[in-house]
């Protein structure tokens, strides 16, 4: 009997110790309020316009805070606990993405067992993180309706989204709930409005067509708030192509101008907008190219888009700006000219660039073969190709004029990349695709 009592006391001590090690949080309430036909977020009773970026984990979160941003968007798989804790340290908030399955990944919304299992998992996640002081809102999945090829999706998906939204609002009354959609198949908005009325706001991913979002919402009678949850340069599906169908990427300078224009004309201007998350506040995402969406270069250098967001968030430009690309030519021709180059021959590339601060510039050239196949969705599985070795025959003293040779093999597409660095951690980037063959 004594041993049993002693064991009971030991167990009590252990349980007590476990409880003392648990972190207890005090939630910060976020609410959305309609005022005179407009919508506003209030966080802890104070107005809060989202000045955010989509990060991959905690990398570059310091720059969001330093440059005037106030929030990051992450997926659950990005390490939500670590992101929330780091956000608290930096004075940022987090739009937390919930791991809700999409049909494109094999989820079946007509399978009630699968749907219920997912519902239970989401409830556990929400219950676990709902009181963290850095939490701003929840996002139920990302582009759940999208199946590559714009194939029809199971309308039961919206019912499941609504069930999750209702559960979250009961479990966590302190944080609004959205789901995130893209702009493809615009009629889906009517289906969402009917089947998922419990979401508090809409997350919208849009790129070149961001300027059409307000009209789209008007057409379907969306009279609730929205946040632009992804936006940035023109998408690779939206840009001009060569005669052989190769997409032409905007320069880092052109992208920076687009960030500024879209923010001013749509994100700030629509009375239903509560802010945005710029895409992509990262350096290691490969989608079509390794430079297309990343706002940082793979060595951490900052592109024009980062500096534009610094200005839009804070009202001030950084003390030193990224180099600007004016044009990139091969044999005097632009990418839109559908360049064909003779294999084994010598060709000329010229970059025209300038630095707004008058800094000296260092130019680096790189030749990559174009990927033969691309991922059906979001670049998943794409990796940067191995660069072509020993292609440079001569570079002038400025680095801006290059003589280069091609491999003897015909029938391939390449991209010539140029990176223009200053001495202050900034870079301007351009690339030009061409086909190796006989013109």
What layout of secondary structure does this protein have?
Blueprint: H1 2-21, E1 30-35, E2 38-43, E3 46-47, E4 50-55, H2 61-66, E5 71-74, H3 80-90, E6 93-98, H4 112-129, E7 135-142, H5 156-171, E8 177-181, H6 188-195, E9 201-205, H7 213-219, E10 226-230, H8 252-267, E11 273-281, H9 304-314, E12 324-330, E13 340-341, E14 346-354, E15 362-369, E16 392-395, E17 401-405, E18 412-421, E19 427-436
Parallel strand pairs: 4-5, 4-11, 5-6, 6-7, 7-8, 8-9, 9-10, 10-11, 13-19
Antiparallel strand pairs: 1-2, 2-3, 12-14, 14-17, 15-18, 16-17, 18-19
Mean pLDDT: 94
List unreliable stretches of 5+ residues: 1-20
Task: Compute the number of structural domains.
Answer: 2
The SS-based structural class is: alpha/beta
* Span between termini: 96 Å
CATH topology of the largest domain: TIM Barrel
Counted by DSSP, the helix tally is 9
State the CATH architecture of the largest domain.
Alpha-Beta Barrel
Can you tell me about this structure?
- The structure is a single chain.
- This protein has 439 residues and is of the alpha/beta class.
- The chain has 2 domains: 23-314, Alpha-Beta Barrel (TIM Barrel); 324-436, Immunoglobulin-like.
- 26% of the residues lie in helices and 27% in strands.
- The protein is built from 9 helices and 19 strands.
- It has an 8-stranded parallel barrel with strand order 4-5-6-7-8-9-10-11, surrounded by 5 helices. A 4-stranded antiparallel beta sheet has the order 12-14-17-16.
- Helix 4 (112-129) packs parallel to helix 5 and helix 8 packs parallel to helix 9.
- The model is unreliable at 1-20 (pLDDT under 50).
